[in-house]
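Researcher: Next entry in the queue.
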Amino acid sequence: MRGHGNRERKRMIYSYLAQYHKRLDNRQVDEIASARQTSSLFLKALLDELRIFGMFERINERISYYLQSETVGAFTSASWSALSKITPMRMAARPG
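Model: Structure for this entry, 96 residues:
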């Protein structure tokens, strides 16, 4: 998130997830907040995906999966496009 410091990003993560009575541990929040490719739009989409993910024991793997894109330094529309491809894959993997 350009223009936002790490402390502000952490506050946004905690605050956003708290609305849904969800939370991540400090290490997970640090990993997301310090990701250089985290734009506001990507951060919200990422948190929404994590919020509904449903397999707590695999949440670290999922965070890494979303943050693995190194193709751009800061998230742009190209990165958003990459995330928009992940969401349908998640939907297709859902049972029933």
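Model: The CA atoms of residues 17 and 48 lie 8 Å apart.
Researcher: Noted, moving on.
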